[in-house]
Specification:
alpha/beta, 24% strand, globular
Length: 388
């Protein structure tokens, strides 16, 4: 079965796509990654998304228009991916764009992803699975990190304490150790605060390309200590967060409290170090010996260098070594979630999301010819990925 996974993450810079051809052999699921791509949002749409994010005030008209515009952008990205792979797909699994993740203390109460799936189904003619997070929340989970399902299948055979780290807008980690239940959670900001500061300073990229700005600055240790006092870091796991907390206003408030000016490059260097130190602290606490990284942060050599400096004795690898390109791992994960849901396989690890039980995820929008639900499959015990 060929499944197209689509996601725009918390960096809200564009839409990642991955087409994976899955086949189940015994209790091992094999996936051939046939296509990956990334489609940037149009500049005006990205600006509207940013302007609507918390703590900004918005209107239901803007929510409706964004739901349509994001859905149309996802539809175009899906069509392009299918054409690029030169062949039809059996299902599309669309995460959409997270606009709000409702967390009260240590409980997730709701989540909102925009990007109306009917636009994707209409343009491609393919059935679409969407709205994939909320079912886990209704079962008591955080609806995140859903990528932990892929992590446990892909890395479970390492035979040592390992963790899968995703460095997107928010950093999250899945910890997998022999003879122990896996667990996963959002650590804190990865690129979110860095991108916010860079964008606010009018840099067109909207991110610190190659970590050059951070590398040119000096870490402000006093400001960093203040930032590390954030109560979220001390909440018990599982836990989840997003730009509802780590918003541009978060930095403005922190700097106001700090009470003295911080040069731009020094601020970017300090926020980069915040990411490295919060991740490293949790990796050490988990007793991890191998860290397998993915996400946009892997393309920031300065961040990766600081992470390596903070984790002596820990082997840092990329998910590329396991068949999942670091920049497209989450899109591959949503391809996997699509396959699982269509085969009635719960794609949740309750110990990772905090749910009371594992659920089959998502809601289906039929394609032009409706959809045929295949026979239920056994839950795979392992996943093997390879490039086409």
């Amino acid at each position: 079965m060929r499944v197209l996974g689509l996601i725009s993450g918390t960096s809200h810079d564009g839409i990642d796509a991955a087409i994976v051809d899955f086949r189940l052999e015994g209790d091992t699921l094999h996936g051939t990654v046939e296509h990956t791509s990334s489609t940037p949002y149009a500049g005006d749409l990205r600006r509207r998304i940013i302007d609507a994010l918390p703590p900004a005030q918005t209107t239901m008209r803007e929510v409706c228009e964004l739901d349509t515009l994001i859905g149309q952008a996802f539809a175009a990205a899906a069509e392009s991916a299918i054409e690029g792979a030169a062949g039809a797909v059996d299902l599309i699994c669309s995460h959409g764009q997270t606009m709000y993740h409702w967390v009260d203390g240590d409980r997730a109460l709701g989540t909102l992803q925009l990007g109306q799936p009917a636009w994707i189904a209409e343009r491609t003619g393919i059935s679409v699975l969407a709205d994939v997070r909320i079912r886990d929340i209704t079962a008591g989970g955080h609806g995140a990190p859903l990528v932990s399902y892929l992590d446990t299948l892909l890395l479970g055979g390492l035979g040592e304490p390992a963790a899968a780290l995703n460095l997107g807008g928010i950093s999250n980690m899945t910890v997998i150790a022999p003879d122990a239940e896996p667990y996963a959670y959002d650590i804190g900001p990865a690129n979110a605060l860095i991108d916010a500061v860079v964008t606010a300073n009018g840099i067109d990229d909207g991110f610190d390309r190659d970590g050059a700005i951070a590398a040119s600055g000096t870490i402000d240790e006093a400001l960093l200590e203040q930032l590390l006092e954030e109560p979220y870091y001390r909440l018990p796991v599982p836990k989840s967060t997003g730009k509802e907390l780590f918003s541009p206003d978060y930095i403005d408030t922190a700097l106001e409290r700090y009470g003295r000016p911080v040069p731009f490059a020094d601020l970017v260097a300090t926020l980069t170090e915040l990411t490295a130190r919060t991740v490293a602290a949790d990796v050490r606490r988990a007793g991890v010996t191998t860290l397998v990284a993915s996400g946009g942060g892997c393309a920031n050599p300065h961040l990766m260098k600081r992470l390596e400096h903070a984790l002596p004795g820990v082997t840092i690898r990329r998910t590329d070594e396991f068949g999942a390109p670091a920049g497209e791992k989450e899109a591959i994960a949503f391809s996997l979630l699509g396959w699982a849901s269509l085969h009635a396989v719960p794609a949740i690890v309750p110990s990772c999301t905090g749910a009371g039980r594992a659920s089959v995820l998502g809601a289906l929008t039929p394609g032009r010819e409706g959809f045929v639900v295949p026979a239920a499959a056994i839950a795979p015990a392992a996943l093997v990925l390879r490039a086409h």
